[in-house]
Amino acid sequence: MQQIIDPTTPRGQLPFDKLPRGFVPWPQLILDALEAEQARKGMRFADEYVKRHLETATLAYFYAGLDVAYRHAEGGIEVLALGWQEASQHLQDNTVKVAQA
Predict the structure, then answer these.
(1) Close Cβ partners of 60 (under 8 Å, ≥ 6 residues apart)
(2) Could you read off the pLDDT of 35-89 as tens digits, one per residue?
């Protein structure tokens, strides 16, 4: 199955070697969308849900379809590796999440 990548996101605009690594802050548009959804529903979402949503949305925004090794960081994620060859080297590290974005 072919994945459709939004051409307006960094994943759709940047070549693989230019995608951000290291600390990646939550994109402002994702923070704004989350805030708008909470306002629309008239409630604050649980902290664990917010954390999971921010991680998932940020991974999709920058790395859709790629394997990523990362850690949660205050205000974003720390990207340690991209692509299966690099990311798979972190599978035994319990402090690192390896996922396909």
Answers:
(1) 11, 101
(2) 999 999 999 999 999 999 999 999 999 999 999 999 999 999 999 999 999 999 9
CB neighbourhood size of 42 (10 A) = 6
HSE-CB for 96 with a 13 A CA cutoff: 18
Alpha helix ranges (H) inside the chain: 10-13, 28-41, 47-63, 84-87
In the block, residue with structure tokens 């402090």:
95
Record the pTM. 0.89
Q: Domain extents for the chain?
A: 20-100
